[in-house]
Amino acid sequence: MAATASTAAACYYDTPEGVDVRGRYDPAFAPVLTRGALAFVAGLQREFRGAVRHAMEQRREAQRRYDAGEAPRFDPATRFVREGGWRCAPVPPAVADRTVEITGPAEPRKMVINALNSGAKVFMADFEDALSPTWENLMNGQVNLRDAVAGTITFRDAARGREYRLNDQTAKLFVRPRGWHLPEAHILIDGEPAIGCLVDFGLYFFHNHAAFRAGQGAGLGPFFYLPKMEHSREARIWNGVFERAEQTAGIERGSIRATVLVETLPAVFQMDEILYELRDHSVGLNCGRWDYIFSYVKTFRAHPDRLLPDRALVGMGQHFMRSYSHLLIRTCHRRGVHAMGGMAAQIPIKDDAAANEAALELVRKDKLREARAGHDGTWAAHPGLIPAIREVFEGHLGGRPNQIGDDAPAGQEAVTAEDLIQPPRGARTVDGLRLNARVGVQYLAAWLAGSGSVPLYNLMEDAATAEISRVQNWQWLRHGAALDAGGVEVRATRELLARVMEEEMARIQAEVGPERFRQGRYAEAGRIFSRQCTAPELDDFLTLDAYNLIVVHHPGGASPCKL
To answer: What domains can be seen in the chain, in order of their start residue?
Structure first.
């Protein structure tokens, strides 16, 4: 249940009828939460909330079928779409070259500046998995992006005596709103929580579309990434949102462009259909591979014959992962749009040059594999990876901006439905159970404290990694998976997890230090993670379950204010 803050003298946001802002008042947020912007968001919610509710119910119905033994498949009713000769609108020249994209949260401000200055072609500013959706993070993120689009964003680091500002040449800005399933409980529309992604999209579009028309979009934009879709009906809703936004702003149809993250197993069977629904607004698809692994487990949660091995073993070498990548590339290039590769989550290892070089070599090999397979670009989590990735992709492309017009590489066979769901191979171990617990708890503790992008064990983790950790432990316990414990086979049980959690919580405390452990939310995160792993029914999303723990309501959007 959301906390409520008491107030003395109060300031309020100027809200239209039917809109109640319960987030803390801050004069810095008021230029974002204007009456016009809130009316625009409310209009989107009123027009599309029925379709969103229907889509979420269809997700639940599909999962019920999977739990009963079905598997995802290509829909016979949309075969005409898959076999048709249609193409998406031409890729805008301003974003033709997307060889390396950096991702990160829309807050903190310094991180936004560094990402735009990183040398990447695109910066995806995230309101989703890399951002803990506290009120302050969301609104500061909107302020940061408004200033970034205007070219005025700066940050003064008093501790270092350094000022950060934009270079003359910066990455193109894409924005990822939250998924359809996430609410925004700090804003009520007609008495119910706003749909989170419509808040993220609506506020950003309302305040920034005009700047894109004149500036970095070269007449097109804004640009978006769209997450967590499972079916083309969800893409159809986004297309309707885009068209309504364009009509309201008085800009040309097809100005808004978006890339869809294919990060759920059901969506890989709907890629043509998703592009078809967004064909006037699409600039491609992306292999959101960490969430895709999470979705594979969630989709097959009731199937004991489809247990994943340790998550460290579930890479692009697995047949089902490689097939997913190849089908995405073929689909995108046939339709004339970008096929974007997956995330390189490594971060520089500053105190060990040999380990750092070994990590960079793994990144180079992964990105060379992507380039040779036909991907047009890829993702990085840290600016330190950009030079190495650019060298790989630019060397392969030989001066071309992308591979959209190329034929599929020789030797790639057609991808079947069975290829996409082939059970992965590899060992399941108690060490894997431990790593899942250790990473999941530390990520969740940081998320509860307001950080959604967390460096752990030389990787930059976001919510996707915590989700994999949670659902894999749940699935192993649910089916009593056999785990290797140093040559001895043991069964995954609640008792084993309880012992592992106790030992791993002690290890976390030793690693972060007693004082930080006490001041952080580690104990709370451990309880939540344990409960999630042992729940009778698997919750859809860890962050959705924990969301109310970071919601703080101020009645009427009020807060103490000097009058």
So the answer is: 38-420 (3.20.20.360), 430-548 (1.20.1220.12)
